[in-house]
């Protein structure tokens, strides 16, 4: 069925866009002179409908009108043993490894050609591995969820942040803080900030910037780093958030070596990058991070080889011709399955 689809899921029949329940969504189509048709959602739409709009425009630029189901929500569990089954293919930007009928498509507002990590005009890393600072770096938002021993996590970090800001009593505030500290990224920061071999810190996203002033959270916040500043370090880290860490490609496409948490999530490029060939895998919840960092320091030749292989593979992701061919193959596969 489609019970596992989010409320923002869409079905496009090649002409009209509808909700998962069949109601018409407010999308229109315009045709600029000499250009392919352009799909536009209503003004003020949710940004995850803008993602669906982006997928439709990807398809229209291919001069196709293949009917598709689209769900560009984050952390899609459908099609996996831990989620609802899917009885039809659905385009999504993330899935659990092995999920059935969850078809990966580039996320328009993150993976499009020209965005960070996917920009053909982006200057390459000009700092050789040996000249980088021999430490690990990470900056990121407190996304992710409360850790659990099972596959599926518990409460999301944004819900604990909201409870922290809304707490009316010291006891409620303490409970909210304790909950936030049980989330994966907050747990990581509290364990490793101040570690002599690491430069790690929280950078709150713009919509959450007020939380950086909270006296409990402020000590863990650090200034945002540019990509060039991150490249000063020999080791970069990719952490799971609500799903696959968004800095995977920008961090990997450098002369640094990437340490990436094994989180079970996949995006459209995941099959191209293999542990120990392109990056160093780190156990879930970073239980062996110090061990893996020590291994990297003891094996510089292996790290240089991984970094070189990763850069060569990442170059294909910013090739516009390769991207068009990828999308065509996905749509061709869906057409054959209908």
Automatic annotation (TrEMBL):
GO molecular function per UniProt: transferase activity
Keywords: Transferase
Domain Glycosyl transferase CAP10: 84-330
Keyword Acetylation among record annotations: no
InterPro entries, A to Z: CAP10 (IPR006598), O-Glucosyltr/Glycosyltrsf_90 (IPR051091)
Domain of life according to the entry: Bacteria
Coiled-coil ranges from the UniProt annotation: none
Listed name of the protein: Glycosyl transferase CAP10 domain-containing protein
Species per Swiss-Prot/TrEMBL record: Paracoccus liaowanqingii
């Amino acid at each position: 069925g489609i019970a596992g689809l989010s409320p923002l899921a869409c079905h496009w029949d090649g002409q009209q866009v509808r909700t998962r329940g069949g109601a018409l969504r407010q999308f229109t189509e315009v045709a600029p002179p000499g250009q392919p048709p352009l799909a536009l959602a209503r003004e003020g739409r949710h940004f995850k409908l803008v993602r669906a709009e982006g997928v439709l425009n990807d398809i229209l630029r291919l001069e196709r009108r293949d009917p598709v189901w689209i769900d560009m929500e984050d952390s899609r569990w459908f099609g996996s043993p831990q989620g609802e089954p899917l009885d039809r293919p659905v385009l999504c930007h993330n899935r659990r490894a092995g999920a059935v009928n969850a078809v990966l498509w580039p996320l328009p507002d993150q993976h499009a050609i020209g965005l960070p990590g996917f920009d053909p005009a982006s200057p390459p890393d000009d700092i050789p591995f040996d000249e980088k600072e021999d430490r690990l770096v990470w900056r990121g938002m407190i996304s992710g969820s409360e850790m659990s021993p099972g596959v599926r996590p518990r409460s999301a970090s944004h819900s604990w942040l909201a409870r922290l800001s809304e707490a009316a009593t010291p006891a409620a505030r303490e409970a909210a803080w304790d909950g936030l500290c049980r989330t994966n990224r907050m747990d990581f920061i509290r364990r490793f900030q101040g570690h002599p071999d690491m430069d790690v810190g929280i950078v709150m996203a713009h919509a959450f910037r007020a939380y950086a002033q909270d006296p409990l959270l402020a000590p863990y916040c650090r200034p945002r780093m540019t990509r060039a500043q991150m490249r000063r370090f020999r080791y970069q880290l990719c952490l799971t958030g609500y799903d696959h860490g968004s800095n995977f490609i920008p961090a990997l496409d450098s002369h640094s070596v990437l340490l990436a948490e094994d989180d079970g999530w996949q995006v459209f490029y995941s099959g191209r990058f293999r542990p120990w060939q392109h990056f160093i895998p780190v156990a879930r919840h970073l239980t062996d991070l110090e061990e893996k960092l020590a291994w990297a320091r003891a094996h510089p030749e292996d790290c240089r080889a991984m970094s070189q292989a990763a850069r060569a593979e990442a170059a294909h992701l910013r090739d516009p011709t390769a991207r068009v061919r990828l999308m065509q193959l996905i749509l061709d596969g869906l057409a054959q399955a209908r």
